[in-house]
# Entry
Amino acid sequence: MIFAKVVGKVVSTHKDENLQGLKLLLCREADHAGKLLPAYHVAVDAVQAGEGDFVLVAYGSSARFTDATRQAPVDAVVMAIIDDIQITEPAR
Amino acid sequence: MQLGKVIGRVWASQKVDSLKGCPLYVVQPLESSGRNKGFPLVAADPRGVAGPGDRVVVVTNTDAVQAFDRADAPVNACIVELVESIE
# Structure
């Protein structure tokens, strides 16, 4: 999983039928300290996340293991909204 | 699988149903010498074996899904063992 911040929504009318009804979010990758990184990902929303939320994104074939994405052609899913990250020991 | 050290916890009240009750930790991967290797990652702990500061074994990629009872959870990394000692 990676940390990310939801920075926008992707709107599309013509899409694969297995993607109908799914919300696509534009997510900017972050590190564990909350610092934003340059990479962006488009991820399906499985937890009713909204713009500005700090979230966890699962990627690759693991992204299909939610009720929303089981049959869908996806490789990234927002699977948790983060309340807090508590670092108990410095990473380096 | 790789060695790692639990350096933090991620609190998320809203998550997919298959991860309800499953703690999420920030894990720093380690070399066998105990030195840090690369960047910290987020790992689920479906068996509840780990705590802050523990050394653990982490499974990454699609194989991490197998650590869940029904092999049905959107995760990329899972803690599967608590390390007691390395000989």
Notes: The interface with chain A takes residues 5-19, 24, 26, 28, 36, 39-44, 52-53, 61-62, 64-65, 72-77 of chain B (CB under 8 Å). Chain B has a mean pLDDT of 93. The CA atoms of residues 58 and 79 of chain B lie 5 Å apart. The two ends of chain B are 17 Å apart (CA to CA).
